[in-house]
Amino acid sequence: MKIQTLCAGLALALAACQSADGDADADALKATLSGEACPDIGDRAYFFWMQPRSAEPGDKVALFPYWTDMPGAYNDLPPGCLDELSVYPEGAATFSREEDGLAIATISEDVEAGTRVRLDGTYRGHGLSGQVEVFRAADNPLVGTWRQDGENCPANSAIQELVFTGGGDFSVTWTPFEVYKDYWGTYTYDAETGAIHLDVESGNQIPEDIVPDGTVVLSDDALSFETLSFGTPGQAEGVCTGSFPK
Fold this sequence. Notes:
Blueprint: H1 2-28, E1 45-47, E2 53-55, E3 60-63, E4 66-68, E5 75-76, E6 82-88, E7 93-97, E8 103-107, E9 116-123, E10 126-134, E11 144-146, E12 161-164, E13 169-173, E14 183-189, E15 195-203, E16 213-218, E17 222-226, E18 244-245
Parallel strand pairs: 2-10
Antiparallel strand pairs: 1-4, 3-8, 4-5, 6-9, 7-8, 9-10, 11-12, 12-13, 13-14, 14-15, 15-16, 16-17, 17-18
């Protein structure tokens, strides 16, 4: 009898814990602020971010809501007003809330590299979303934003933003300003051989001396390229061959 009573007590406790966890997960999907705390911006474009972000399984992504009515303008909104959170594919992320109401999406550990995850929510009934491209750094250590060491390079020739995404896109920018980029496209990278190829698709400034094929050289403290050249920008007298320190 005592054993049966103990087991029943454990079962009830487990059920209570599971119910509490479910309630916590459900609460994370709901806004923590309402009314005057959530200004009515009207019919605008709402978003988390414009371009897809890159993240690994297990990474936490903060969901800051923004609105805009012109290119390049990011106007922030109270994060606690973010409501009706969801993810596609289903189960690709879980949600939690910080004390100030900021929503956090945690990319699930079992999401495969190459998956594009869409995070959705609403602000006063207006939908907003942001896409995440899942990758694994062990397979593609290029992903991220790099800045070139221009110490021994011609003036104004060092790249200030070289971006590789987990979805296979890249961009090159010598003088960053808001969302401006000099040129962009897609890339392929072989982690075993280090071979890389750039396929330039478009841009505002595309140098004529780009060499799109080469080899990536990775060390503990820098990224560099053999043969490949990102070209000479119009404001410089020569190409910069400096590495990209971490």
